[in-house]
Amino acid sequence: MSSYDLVVIGTGPGGYVCAIRAAQLGLKTAVVEKRATHGGTCLNVGCIPSKALLHASEAFEEAGKHFADLGVIVSEPKLDLRKMMAFKDEGVAGNTKGVEFLLKKNGVDSYRGTGRLAGAGRVEVIAEDGGNQLLETKNVVIATGSDVTKLPGVTIDEKVVVSSTGALELASVPKRLVVIGAGVIGLELGSVWRRLGSEVTVVEYLDRVLPGMDGEVGKQFHRILGKQGIAFKLSSKVTGVEVGKKGATVTVEPAAGGEAEKLQADVVLVAIGRVPYTEGLGLETVGVQVDNKGRIQTDSHYATNVTGIYAIGDVIAGPMLAHKAEDEGVAVAELLAGQSGHVNYGVIPNVVYTFPEVASVGKTEEELKKDGIAYNAGKFPFTANGRAKVNHTTDGFVKILADATTDRVLGVHIVGADAGNLIAEVAVAMEFGASAEDVARTCHAHPTLTEAVKEAALAVGKRAIHI
Ligand code: FAD
Ligand code: NAI
Known about the structure:
The protein is α/β, with parallel strands linked by helices. The protein has three domains: 4-148 and 275-337, FAD/NAD(P)-binding domain, CATH 3.50.50; 161-272, FAD/NAD(P)-binding domain; 350-461, Enolase-like, domain 1. The protein has 14 helices and 22 strands. The strands form five sheets. Strands 1, 2, 3, 4, 5, 6 and 17 form a seven-stranded mixed sheet that branches. The protein has a five-stranded parallel sheet with strand order 8-15-9-10-11. Strand 5 and strand 6 form a beta hairpin. The longest helix is centred in the first third of the chain and has 25 residues, at 81-105. The chain is globular and about 65 Å long.
């Protein structure tokens, strides 16, 4: 029987990063993955393929709608969906092969199959052909990720009624796409298919899009997507999806009750959240505790209630984000090697990769109000940023929230082109405990979109220059 210091179950961003860091620190490490390729949800059916399609569909829309404004005259662009999907698949393959290479390079052993906890210090690997292997290990890290939340009474067939996985590989552009849920997946993939020609209607239970993000951001973003042609039915619930010979009929009712209406759709995307995935892991054989949402319970060192078993990523509490899973992977590996691994949950950026992008880090205005924390807000619109003006990307703003007494940055919220990159500087600033004044006094290159961040920081002290 092979024997290890650490066996990691699942090679998504949490698991593979954890394994590499553990190997770097001298732990004899193995990973167990049931998928044919490494990289988990993120690389295979999540972050990477969705960003490839967002990139390609944006290029398609740009060529059709905006090139002429720049004096670039091209004939009307035509969509070759198969080629676009091949572009996406190539990106996925490049990334998953990269992870395989990194695991090998760091001396991590790879086992293909379902990992099952088989008593103290043992993991059983069950291969697809039924064969099994027993691994002995001092520690186990569970990084088995998450799965799609099902809508009661609605069967996902990945053809007419799809999850994000099916929506990333449709064979043709649906004429009418109904999206259930105005969260990250609904708005990113809704944007992809709208750009490629679908009429998109998003049905959301709550009275706003992107719940959990800053309210002002949600409002402005809702308006922008509306202008782009996405239709919204907020405060509405789907009570049934009936698949017919051609497409589906979606029954929608006001969330508070009232008259139902029927929407016709060629494809229905169910995007109402994700749930922790622990099927087949055998948690019950060793008695690992989960909470009422099915998340594996851990302490601040990622330890479960069972000695030697740890858990990280989407399968535990916290935002279901790849970079959160990665940082937890590093932290738990360092803790196992006797170091002081740590994740600062107050500074985890959250980005929606639509156009424009939405990015946030730290507290929202709603959270600060609820916590009774006095703050000053500085806001700067991209309409007043020179680079955004010349690029015709003036939708959106930067908002910085700083403690009213200490001026420490507590939260930053951006709607705008490249917001996902812009948020990085304020995340670093927050990690160092910076004040808005620190950001305002830092020289920012001209002409860049980053100047809008500096101006928002100046606006906290009511001294922005360009508005
Ligand atoms: P996962 O990536 O889910 O990996 C878990 C792995 O464990 C899987 O490969 C699975 O096969 C394997 N596994 C499960 N059980 C077993 C078992 N018993 N034995 C062996 N293997 C097992 N996040 C971002 O930060 N940015 C984005 O842009 C982004 N885009 C997304 C787009 C979509 C469409 C989706 C669905 C998600 C997106 N996410 C994004 C979320 C991100 O994918 C997850 O937060 C991230 O993948 C979580 O990493 P993880 O390592 O915890 O789990
Ligand atoms: P989500 O939690 O972001 O959004 C789900 C939405 O569906 C919410 O607005 C919710 O109010 C709504 N909803 C729930 N039940 C409903 C119902 N019955 N009818 C109508 N609306 C309903 O979940 P989503 O978009 O499925 O994404 C799952 C996870 O994947 C997210 O937690 C996110 O962290 C991660 N992800 C991250 C991305 C990124 O970082 N860019 C991209 C895609 C996914």
